[in-house]
Amino acid sequence: MPYATPIVIAVFCAVYLGMALGRWPGLKIDRTGIAILGAILLYASGVVTGAGVLEAIDWATITLLFGLMILSAQFAACGFYDWCSAHIAATPASPTAILALTVIVAGTLSAVLANDVVVFAMTPMLIQGLAARGLDPRPYLITLAGGANAGSAATVIGNPQNILIGQVGRLDFWEFGLVCGPPALFGLISVFVVVWLVWRRRFAHGPAHDAEIIVPAIDRFGVGKAILATAALLAMFATSLTHVTGVLIIAAVLLISRRLATREILGLVDWHLLALFGGLFVVTAALAQTGLPADALQAMTAAGLAPTSLSALVPLTLAGSNTIGNVPTVVLLLAVLKDLPAETLYALAVLSTLAGNLLVVGSLANIIVVERARQSEVVLGFAEHARCGVPMTLLSFAAAVAWFAGRPLLGF
Predict the structure, then answer these.
(1) Domain range list for the chain
(2) Residue 230, class by beta-carbon neighbours within 10 Å (0-12 exposed, 13-18 middle, 19+ buried)?
Protein backbone atom coordinates (compact mmCIF):
# COMPACT_ATOMS: atom_id res chain seq x y z
CA MET A 1 0.00 0.00 0.00
CA PRO A 2 1.54 3.35 -1.05
CA TYR A 3 0.20 5.15 2.02
CA ALA A 4 1.67 2.66 4.48
CA THR A 5 5.08 4.28 4.97
CA PRO A 6 3.77 7.79 5.85
CA ILE A 7 1.31 6.25 8.32
CA VAL A 8 4.03 4.16 9.95
CA ILE A 9 6.37 7.16 10.23
CA ALA A 10 3.62 9.33 11.71
CA VAL A 11 2.62 6.69 14.26
CA PHE A 12 6.24 5.89 15.11
CA CYS A 13 7.10 9.56 15.72
CA ALA A 14 3.96 10.10 17.81
CA VAL A 15 4.63 6.99 19.92
CA TYR A 16 8.29 7.74 20.59
CA LEU A 17 7.54 11.39 21.29
CA GLY A 18 5.16 10.08 23.94
CA MET A 19 7.91 7.81 25.26
CA ALA A 20 10.17 10.86 25.64
CA LEU A 21 7.56 13.11 27.27
CA GLY A 22 5.94 10.40 29.37
CA ARG A 23 2.52 11.31 28.03
CA TRP A 24 0.89 13.25 25.26
CA PRO A 25 0.36 16.93 26.24
CA GLY A 26 -3.14 17.62 27.50
CA LEU A 27 -3.98 13.95 27.96
CA LYS A 28 -3.51 11.49 30.80
CA ILE A 29 -2.53 8.62 28.55
CA ASP A 30 0.86 7.34 29.72
CA ARG A 31 3.69 5.48 27.96
CA THR A 32 1.89 2.14 28.07
CA GLY A 33 -1.32 3.59 26.68
CA ILE A 34 0.61 5.39 23.93
CA ALA A 35 2.36 2.19 22.84
CA ILE A 36 -0.93 0.26 22.78
CA LEU A 37 -2.70 3.05 20.88
CA GLY A 38 0.13 3.13 18.32
CA ALA A 39 -0.25 -0.59 17.67
CA ILE A 40 -4.04 -0.24 17.39
CA LEU A 41 -3.72 2.59 14.85
CA LEU A 42 -1.38 0.52 12.69
CA TYR A 43 -3.78 -2.43 12.81
CA ALA A 44 -6.91 -0.35 12.22
CA SER A 45 -5.32 1.40 9.22
CA GLY A 46 -4.50 -1.94 7.64
CA VAL A 47 -0.75 -1.40 7.72
CA VAL A 48 -0.32 -4.35 10.08
CA THR A 49 -2.48 -7.48 9.93
CA GLY A 50 -3.63 -9.54 12.86
CA ALA A 51 -1.07 -12.19 11.95
CA GLY A 52 1.54 -9.42 11.68
CA VAL A 53 0.78 -8.24 15.21
CA LEU A 54 1.25 -11.72 16.62
CA GLU A 55 4.46 -12.19 14.64
CA ALA A 56 5.90 -8.83 15.72
CA ILE A 57 5.55 -9.54 19.45
CA ASP A 58 8.43 -11.49 20.95
CA TRP A 59 6.33 -13.85 23.03
CA ALA A 60 9.34 -15.61 24.52
CA THR A 61 10.51 -12.34 26.05
CA ILE A 62 7.02 -11.49 27.32
CA THR A 63 6.68 -14.94 28.87
CA LEU A 64 10.11 -14.81 30.50
CA LEU A 65 9.43 -11.38 31.94
CA PHE A 66 6.05 -12.53 33.26
CA GLY A 67 7.57 -15.56 34.98
CA LEU A 68 10.27 -13.47 36.66
CA MET A 69 7.60 -11.05 37.86
CA ILE A 70 5.84 -13.98 39.54
CA LEU A 71 9.09 -14.83 41.34
CA SER A 72 9.58 -11.23 42.46
CA ALA A 73 5.93 -11.02 43.50
CA GLN A 74 6.48 -13.98 45.84
CA PHE A 75 9.19 -12.02 47.66
CA ALA A 76 7.02 -8.88 47.76
CA ALA A 77 3.90 -10.64 49.02
CA CYS A 78 5.87 -12.16 51.91
CA GLY A 79 7.16 -8.76 53.05
CA PHE A 80 10.77 -9.46 52.10
CA TYR A 81 11.41 -6.07 50.48
CA ASP A 82 9.90 -4.16 53.41
CA TRP A 83 12.02 -6.24 55.79
CA CYS A 84 15.20 -5.41 53.85
CA SER A 85 14.40 -1.70 53.75
CA ALA A 86 13.69 -1.51 57.47
CA HIS A 87 16.88 -3.39 58.34
CA ILE A 88 18.94 -1.01 56.21
CA ALA A 89 17.53 2.01 58.04
CA ALA A 90 17.68 0.36 61.48
CA THR A 91 21.24 -0.89 61.30
CA PRO A 92 23.42 0.60 64.08
CA ALA A 93 25.91 2.14 61.66
CA SER A 94 26.99 5.52 60.36
CA PRO A 95 25.08 7.30 57.57
CA THR A 96 27.92 6.42 55.19
CA ALA A 97 27.67 2.73 56.07
CA ILE A 98 23.90 2.84 55.50
CA LEU A 99 24.57 4.38 52.09
CA ALA A 100 26.93 1.51 51.24
CA LEU A 101 24.41 -1.04 52.50
CA THR A 102 21.70 0.51 50.33
CA VAL A 103 23.89 0.14 47.24
CA ILE A 104 24.76 -3.47 48.06
CA VAL A 105 21.20 -4.60 48.80
CA ALA A 106 19.64 -2.77 45.83
CA GLY A 107 22.30 -4.01 43.43
CA THR A 108 22.22 -7.62 44.64
CA LEU A 109 18.45 -7.95 44.63
CA SER A 110 18.14 -6.31 41.22
CA ALA A 111 20.64 -8.72 39.69
CA VAL A 112 18.30 -11.68 40.27
CA LEU A 113 14.91 -9.98 40.56
CA ALA A 114 13.18 -7.27 38.54
CA ASN A 115 14.82 -3.95 39.47
CA ASP A 116 11.58 -2.01 39.01
CA VAL A 117 9.78 -4.22 41.52
CA VAL A 118 12.68 -3.93 43.99
CA VAL A 119 12.62 -0.12 44.09
CA PHE A 120 8.83 0.02 44.09
CA ALA A 121 8.65 -2.13 47.20
CA MET A 122 11.67 -0.75 49.07
CA THR A 123 11.19 3.02 48.69
CA PRO A 124 8.38 3.71 51.22
CA MET A 125 9.80 1.61 54.06
CA LEU A 126 13.32 2.97 53.49
CA ILE A 127 12.01 6.55 53.71
CA GLN A 128 10.09 5.74 56.89
CA GLY A 129 13.14 4.22 58.58
CA LEU A 130 15.50 7.02 57.55
CA ALA A 131 13.03 9.67 58.73
CA ALA A 132 12.85 7.95 62.13
CA ARG A 133 16.62 8.39 62.41
CA GLY A 134 16.49 12.00 61.28
CA LEU A 135 18.36 11.33 58.04
CA ASP A 136 17.65 13.10 54.77
CA PRO A 137 16.29 10.31 52.56
CA ARG A 138 17.14 11.96 49.22
CA PRO A 139 20.73 10.72 48.80
CA TYR A 140 19.65 7.24 49.83
CA LEU A 141 16.85 7.27 47.27
CA ILE A 142 19.29 8.29 44.54
CA THR A 143 21.51 5.45 45.71
CA LEU A 144 18.59 3.00 45.74
CA ALA A 145 17.67 3.78 42.14
CA GLY A 146 21.27 4.01 40.94
CA GLY A 147 22.25 0.79 42.68
CA ALA A 148 19.23 -1.05 41.32
CA ASN A 149 20.04 0.09 37.78
CA ALA A 150 23.75 -0.74 38.00
CA GLY A 151 23.21 -4.08 39.72
CA SER A 152 20.60 -5.15 37.17
CA ALA A 153 23.18 -4.76 34.39
CA ALA A 154 25.09 -7.78 35.72
CA THR A 155 22.64 -10.50 34.66
CA VAL A 156 20.46 -11.36 31.71
CA ILE A 157 17.37 -11.31 33.98
CA GLY A 158 18.20 -8.12 35.87
CA ASN A 159 15.90 -5.80 33.92
CA PRO A 160 13.45 -5.87 31.01
CA GLN A 161 15.91 -4.70 28.34
CA ASN A 162 18.46 -7.35 29.33
CA ILE A 163 15.78 -10.02 29.17
CA LEU A 164 14.92 -8.91 25.64
CA ILE A 165 18.58 -8.80 24.59
CA GLY A 166 19.18 -12.24 26.09
CA GLN A 167 16.26 -13.75 24.22
CA VAL A 168 17.19 -12.17 20.89
CA GLY A 169 20.80 -13.28 21.15
CA ARG A 170 20.11 -16.55 23.00
CA LEU A 171 22.76 -15.54 25.50
CA ASP A 172 23.91 -17.91 28.21
CA PHE A 173 23.06 -16.77 31.73
CA TRP A 174 26.45 -17.48 33.30
CA GLU A 175 28.50 -16.21 30.36
CA PHE A 176 26.46 -13.00 30.44
CA GLY A 177 27.31 -12.57 34.12
CA LEU A 178 31.02 -13.10 33.54
CA VAL A 179 31.11 -10.49 30.78
CA CYS A 180 28.72 -7.90 32.20
CA GLY A 181 29.40 -8.40 35.92
CA PRO A 182 32.65 -6.37 36.13
CA PRO A 183 31.29 -3.15 34.55
CA ALA A 184 28.12 -3.53 36.62
CA LEU A 185 30.22 -3.83 39.79
CA PHE A 186 32.15 -0.70 38.88
CA GLY A 187 28.81 0.98 38.26
CA LEU A 188 27.77 0.15 41.83
CA ILE A 189 31.03 1.58 43.15
CA SER A 190 30.48 4.71 41.06
CA VAL A 191 27.02 5.18 42.54
CA PHE A 192 28.34 5.01 46.10
CA VAL A 193 31.39 7.22 45.53
CA VAL A 194 29.54 9.95 43.64
CA VAL A 195 26.58 10.15 46.02
CA TRP A 196 28.93 10.23 49.01
CA LEU A 197 31.03 13.01 47.48
CA VAL A 198 28.02 15.13 46.53
CA TRP A 199 26.23 14.68 49.89
CA ARG A 200 29.24 14.15 52.19
CA ARG A 201 28.49 17.18 54.38
CA ARG A 202 25.12 15.68 55.29
CA PHE A 203 26.75 12.35 56.15
CA ALA A 204 29.37 13.98 58.36
CA HIS A 205 26.70 15.20 60.77
CA GLY A 206 24.56 12.14 61.20
CA PRO A 207 22.11 11.83 64.13
CA ALA A 208 22.33 9.52 67.07
CA HIS A 209 21.50 5.86 66.44
CA ASP A 210 18.94 5.40 69.19
CA ALA A 211 15.82 5.93 67.09
CA GLU A 212 13.37 3.07 67.42
CA ILE A 213 12.52 1.59 64.03
CA ILE A 214 9.95 -1.15 63.79
CA VAL A 215 11.12 -3.93 61.48
CA PRO A 216 8.05 -5.58 59.94
CA ALA A 217 7.50 -9.30 60.27
CA ILE A 218 7.91 -11.50 57.23
CA ASP A 219 6.38 -14.75 56.14
CA ARG A 220 9.46 -16.91 56.70
CA PHE A 221 7.96 -19.92 54.98
CA GLY A 222 7.01 -17.86 51.94
CA VAL A 223 10.42 -16.20 51.75
CA GLY A 224 12.12 -19.57 52.11
CA LYS A 225 10.00 -20.87 49.26
CA ALA A 226 11.00 -17.88 47.13
CA ILE A 227 14.71 -18.34 47.91
CA LEU A 228 14.55 -22.03 47.02
CA ALA A 229 12.73 -21.14 43.80
CA THR A 230 15.43 -18.61 42.93
CA ALA A 231 18.20 -21.14 43.61
CA ALA A 232 16.38 -23.74 41.49
CA LEU A 233 16.00 -21.24 38.65
CA LEU A 234 19.71 -20.39 38.68
CA ALA A 235 20.49 -24.10 38.64
CA MET A 236 18.22 -24.57 35.62
CA PHE A 237 20.12 -21.84 33.79
CA ALA A 238 23.19 -24.11 33.95
CA THR A 239 21.32 -26.89 32.10
CA SER A 240 20.21 -27.27 28.49
CA LEU A 241 16.68 -26.28 29.49
CA THR A 242 15.56 -23.07 27.79
CA HIS A 243 15.26 -19.96 29.97
CA VAL A 244 11.55 -19.65 29.21
CA THR A 245 10.81 -23.24 30.21
CA GLY A 246 12.77 -22.91 33.45
CA VAL A 247 11.06 -19.68 34.43
CA LEU A 248 7.60 -21.05 33.66
CA ILE A 249 8.26 -24.12 35.80
CA ILE A 250 9.25 -21.92 38.73
CA ALA A 251 6.24 -19.64 38.21
CA ALA A 252 3.91 -22.64 38.17
CA VAL A 253 5.37 -23.97 41.42
CA LEU A 254 4.99 -20.57 43.12
CA LEU A 255 1.37 -20.25 42.06
CA ILE A 256 0.62 -23.49 43.94
CA SER A 257 0.19 -22.12 47.45
CA ARG A 258 -1.95 -22.57 50.57
CA ARG A 259 -1.09 -19.07 51.88
CA LEU A 260 -1.11 -16.73 48.90
CA ALA A 261 -4.09 -16.54 46.59
CA THR A 262 -3.42 -16.56 42.86
CA ARG A 263 -5.17 -13.20 42.58
CA GLU A 264 -2.75 -11.72 45.12
CA ILE A 265 0.32 -12.92 43.25
CA LEU A 266 -0.98 -11.86 39.83
CA GLY A 267 -1.95 -8.49 41.28
CA LEU A 268 1.77 -7.79 41.84
CA VAL A 269 2.68 -8.50 38.21
CA ASP A 270 3.49 -5.36 36.23
CA TRP A 271 0.96 -5.88 33.46
CA HIS A 272 1.53 -2.32 32.24
CA LEU A 273 5.16 -3.09 31.41
CA LEU A 274 4.17 -6.26 29.54
CA ALA A 275 1.62 -4.27 27.52
CA LEU A 276 4.23 -1.57 26.85
CA PHE A 277 6.56 -4.20 25.39
CA GLY A 278 3.79 -5.60 23.19
CA GLY A 279 2.87 -2.22 21.75
CA LEU A 280 6.47 -1.22 21.07
CA PHE A 281 7.18 -4.55 19.37
CA VAL A 282 4.40 -3.86 16.86
CA VAL A 283 5.36 -0.22 16.22
CA THR A 284 9.07 -0.90 15.73
CA ALA A 285 8.42 -3.97 13.56
CA ALA A 286 6.23 -1.86 11.29
CA LEU A 287 8.99 0.73 10.95
CA ALA A 288 11.57 -1.96 10.13
CA GLN A 289 9.34 -3.25 7.33
CA THR A 290 9.42 0.14 5.58
CA GLY A 291 13.12 -0.30 4.85
CA LEU A 292 14.00 3.12 6.25
CA PRO A 293 16.08 1.82 9.18
CA ALA A 294 18.11 -0.36 6.81
CA ASP A 295 18.77 2.67 4.61
CA ALA A 296 19.90 4.67 7.64
CA LEU A 297 22.31 1.90 8.65
CA GLN A 298 23.79 1.80 5.17
CA ALA A 299 24.30 5.57 5.30
CA MET A 300 26.06 5.32 8.68
CA THR A 301 28.31 2.55 7.41
CA ALA A 302 29.14 4.53 4.27
CA ALA A 303 30.08 7.48 6.48
CA GLY A 304 32.59 5.27 8.31
CA LEU A 305 30.58 4.83 11.53
CA ALA A 306 29.72 1.21 12.24
CA PRO A 307 26.33 1.11 14.06
CA THR A 308 27.52 -1.80 16.21
CA SER A 309 30.74 -0.15 17.37
CA LEU A 310 31.24 1.26 20.88
CA SER A 311 31.66 4.73 19.38
CA ALA A 312 28.09 4.45 18.06
CA LEU A 313 26.50 2.56 20.96
CA VAL A 314 27.67 5.08 23.58
CA PRO A 315 25.81 8.13 22.16
CA LEU A 316 22.85 6.02 21.01
CA THR A 317 22.23 4.52 24.44
CA LEU A 318 22.91 7.74 26.35
CA ALA A 319 20.63 9.82 24.16
CA GLY A 320 17.99 7.14 23.69
CA SER A 321 17.71 6.07 27.31
CA ASN A 322 17.33 9.65 28.51
CA THR A 323 14.76 10.68 25.94
CA ILE A 324 12.51 7.76 25.05
CA GLY A 325 13.74 5.45 27.86
CA ASN A 326 16.11 2.48 27.88
CA VAL A 327 13.46 -0.16 27.20
CA PRO A 328 12.04 1.59 24.09
CA THR A 329 15.61 2.34 22.93
CA VAL A 330 16.62 -1.32 23.09
CA VAL A 331 13.40 -2.46 21.40
CA LEU A 332 14.07 0.00 18.58
CA LEU A 333 17.76 -0.86 18.16
CA LEU A 334 17.09 -4.60 18.09
CA ALA A 335 14.40 -4.09 15.48
CA VAL A 336 16.84 -2.14 13.31
CA LEU A 337 20.14 -3.93 13.99
CA LYS A 338 19.74 -7.57 13.02
CA ASP A 339 21.95 -10.57 13.85
CA LEU A 340 24.15 -8.70 16.31
CA PRO A 341 27.19 -10.60 17.67
CA ALA A 342 27.18 -11.56 21.33
CA GLU A 343 29.85 -9.01 22.25
CA THR A 344 27.74 -6.17 20.85
CA LEU A 345 24.69 -7.44 22.73
CA TYR A 346 26.65 -7.53 25.99
CA ALA A 347 27.77 -3.93 25.45
CA LEU A 348 24.24 -2.84 24.52
CA ALA A 349 22.83 -4.41 27.69
CA VAL A 350 25.36 -2.76 30.00
CA LEU A 351 25.41 0.66 28.33
CA SER A 352 21.63 0.98 27.97
CA THR A 353 21.20 0.05 31.64
CA LEU A 354 23.93 2.30 33.05
CA ALA A 355 22.69 5.15 30.84
CA GLY A 356 19.46 5.03 32.83
CA ASN A 357 21.24 6.62 35.79
CA LEU A 358 21.99 9.88 33.96
CA LEU A 359 18.63 11.62 34.49
CA VAL A 360 15.40 10.85 36.32
CA VAL A 361 13.70 10.02 33.01
CA GLY A 362 16.49 7.61 32.04
CA SER A 363 14.90 4.52 33.55
CA LEU A 364 11.58 3.36 34.91
CA ALA A 365 13.28 2.56 38.24
CA ASN A 366 14.22 6.23 38.67
CA ILE A 367 10.69 7.38 37.93
CA ILE A 368 9.22 4.82 40.33
CA VAL A 369 11.49 6.01 43.17
CA VAL A 370 10.62 9.66 42.56
CA GLU A 371 6.87 8.98 42.42
CA ARG A 372 6.86 6.67 45.45
CA ALA A 373 8.89 9.23 47.38
CA ARG A 374 6.40 11.96 46.50
CA GLN A 375 3.63 9.80 47.95
CA SER A 376 5.65 9.78 51.20
CA GLU A 377 6.00 13.59 51.01
CA VAL A 378 9.65 13.49 49.99
CA VAL A 379 10.48 15.55 46.90
CA LEU A 380 13.47 14.40 44.87
CA GLY A 381 13.96 17.02 42.18
CA PHE A 382 15.30 16.64 38.64
CA ALA A 383 18.38 18.77 39.38
CA GLU A 384 19.11 16.99 42.67
CA HIS A 385 19.17 13.67 40.89
CA ALA A 386 21.22 15.01 37.98
CA ARG A 387 23.94 16.30 40.33
CA CYS A 388 24.69 12.66 41.14
CA GLY A 389 23.28 10.97 38.05
CA VAL A 390 25.46 12.72 35.47
CA PRO A 391 28.87 12.05 37.09
CA MET A 392 27.99 8.49 38.19
CA THR A 393 26.86 7.65 34.66
CA LEU A 394 29.86 9.19 32.93
CA LEU A 395 32.21 7.45 35.36
CA SER A 396 30.57 4.05 34.93
CA PHE A 397 30.36 4.55 31.15
CA ALA A 398 34.09 5.25 30.95
CA ALA A 399 34.81 2.04 32.85
CA ALA A 400 32.37 0.01 30.73
CA VAL A 401 33.82 1.29 27.45
CA ALA A 402 37.34 0.55 28.66
CA TRP A 403 36.24 -2.95 29.70
CA PHE A 404 34.61 -3.85 26.39
CA ALA A 405 37.37 -2.20 24.33
CA GLY A 406 40.06 -4.02 26.29
CA ARG A 407 38.48 -7.49 26.40
CA PRO A 408 39.91 -8.62 23.02
CA LEU A 409 43.33 -7.27 23.93
CA LEU A 410 43.35 -8.99 27.33
CA GLY A 411 41.96 -12.25 25.97
CA PHE A 412 38.79 -12.19 28.09
Answers:
(1) 4-410
(2) middle
